[in-house]
Amino acid sequence: MRDKIKSNIVIIERGFCMKGFAMLGIGKTGWIEKEKPKAGIYDAIVKPIAVAPCTSDIHTVFEGALGDKKDIILGHEGVGEIVEVGSQVKDFKPGDKVVIPAITPDWRTMGSVRGFPQHGREMLDGWKFSNIKDGVFAEYFHVNDADMNLAHLPEGVSIEAGVMLSDMVTTGIHGAELANIQVGDTVVIIGIGPVGLMAIVGAKLRGAGRIIAVGSRPALIDAAKYYGASEIVNYKEAPVMDQIMEITNNQGVDRVIVAGADSNILKTAVKIVKPGGVISNINYFGEGDTIPIPRLDWGSGMAHKKIVGGLTPGGRDRMERLLELVKYKRIEPERLITHKFHGLEKVEDALMLMKDKQEDLIKPIVYIE
């Protein structure tokens, strides 16, 4: 196979290569060509049907949150069609339409045995797409452990819902799971982007009573109310802590889910949660070496204010359970989508839209034609 050199990128002759939208370095993106991936015996090769960019892609590229990665294809949210499977794949075949989880663990690891497949061999290694290997913004992409990581897209569940399940829904609901919300709890969700909106859904599903959403953009506020927020706190009007303490008669709240803002937001979370309460973080902190915790508000470490953060579970079973929520109309993730693009080449436009966050944006989707 003969290579050609063009603009400092190796181009492999067509027939063996594919196009993808990649991180070229910190702050730099562009289209590259790479060799089409090959399936191992347990794996699958998938072509995308629809994909979506994520704020995590923005952190990765423009903040260098995962380091100065070179020529790695971006994207970790999608629905696709299988084009090839390995010899040991039993439950999937070429032509199947599948939901691709953002997190695809290696299931034959000690981390999986311990109940944390997201951290199978090392911390966060279940997050493979655009972190450890090329992501889904390409003509083809590789999925490891296909029988354990892919989920069939059922009849009656839209492509749009499937794409939102892959990350936004599972991450948001995981915030409610980590918070261990109990029936009747008062819960604050800080940050009502698409993940925060799905955290509202998760809080409602787990039986929260009062759900207070913190945000400012009108489109997000309307969506938060639709998904179940009982009250809105606009952080642009006054400090969040002051507003929360005022509307709770200085009692604070039982649970806080952090789904946005920089790491300083944990100071606010610690101050507003009651002793014995839980702060659940599902936010991707892309900058800084440390995360501040106010000592006195944390009871000098003795207030039983629990802080827990976690990468969403991945894999097939998780996706199938979330698909049941869609199938039986417990959730409507399609409502997150506000902007639609057509054609793989439009991934770049959709990603920049996520970076700029115009007023009416919640989530874009790109249909691959």
Structure, described:
The chain has 2 domains: 3-168 and 312-367, Quinone Oxidoreductase, Chain A, domain 1 (Alpha-Beta Complex), CATH 3.90.180; 174-309, Rossmann fold (3-Layer(aba) Sandwich), CATH 3.40.50.720. 26% of the residues lie in helices and 26% in strands. The protein is built from 10 helices and 18 strands. The strands form 4 sheets. Strands 5, 7, 8, 9, 10, 17 and 18 form a 7-stranded mixed beta sheet that branches. A hairpin with a 2-residue loop joins strand 1 and strand 2 (9-12). The radius of gyration is 21 Å and the shape is globular. Mean pLDDT is 94; it is low at 1-14.
Can you give me a brief rundown of this structure?
The chain is α/β, with parallel strands linked by helices and 369 residues long.
Task: Fill in the keyword field for this structure.
globular; 369 residues; 7-stranded mixed β-sheet; alpha/beta; Quinone Oxidoreductase, Chain A, domain 1; Rossmann fold
Report the total helices: 10
* Main pleated-sheet profile: 7 strands, mixed
> In total, how many beta strands?
18
Please report which band the strand proportion falls in: under 5%, 5-15%, 15-25%, 25-35%, 35-45% or over 45%.
25-35%
Gross CATH architecture of the largest domain: Alpha-Beta Complex
What is the helix/strand order? EEEEEHEEEHEHEHEHEHEHEHEEHEHE
